[in-house]
Amino acid sequence: MIISQNSKLQNPELEAEIYYLTTEEGGRYKPVYSGYRGQLYYNNQNWDAPQEFIDKEVCYMGETVKVYLQTLSPHFHIGQFFKGQIFEIREGSIIVGKGQITKVIRPDFNYWDFESFQSQLPENYKPFDFKSINKTMIDIKSLMDKMKQIESIKFAKKTSGNNQRLIVECQLKNKNSALRPFADELYKNWNDLFPLKDSFFKIKTYWYEDSFELELFFAICDHNNNIYITGSMIVSTR
To answer: By the 8 A CB rule, do 106 and 47 touch?
Structure first.
């Protein structure tokens, strides 16, 4: 079947299979068409992610469809996905589909954490020494000083064998700051300073009644000197 050009995604990031629930299972009353923009729900949050159907143009309730997904807020999804990952498709709070990731197309979307990062390092790589840590702190402070929303920044170093962590705490001036524009600026500045070819990066957000916290996890390699550092940055409006 020929898929409509109007439902083609420009930059598919994920491939998945989705089962759309029947009405009796609590699903939709009407079929879903390629180009559908339900909410992708995983890690306890909803995200916009239009779908391009691979094997059909229309999916009726009770059927499974193969899809491409493209998120509309990609910075938040870096480092978050793996093959076999389970997710839901929602309309508001209603679950209309259940899916599974079959392929991570966008390379930087592949899941990572500190343990997996360290397990892939060559044996001769060592944690940053204090001189390298201090330089990284200066670089990060310079980066954050460019962002007018930042009111204060503090650093802490935690070292125990190979479990080296640099902890950065930032406070925003205005607790009503919008998350998305701030995260977009942070991602751009961070990637300019620490390109993803030499580092790993992922974001987690925490929402409260009238504020939010953003936690940026990072792992940075200096391949010229065979050293690395991991850490996190917490940005708060509380």
So the answer is: no
Domains and CATH numbers, the chain: 5-109 (2.40.30.10), 114-236 (3.30.460)
- Relative orientation angle of helices 130-145 and 179-193, to the nearest 10 degrees: 140
pTM, full prediction: 0.89
Residue carrying the six token digits 């691979």: 54
Q: Give pLDDT tens digits for 19-77.
A: 999 999 999 999 999 999 999 999 999 999 999 999 899 999 999 999 999 999 999 99
Residues 229/127, Cβ–Cβ less than 8 Å: yes
Which DSSP category does 60 fall into? -
Longest dimension (CA), the chain: 63
C-alpha 70/C-alpha 36 separation (Å) is: 11
State the sign of the Cα–Cα–Cα–Cα dihedral 165, 80, 236, 209: negative
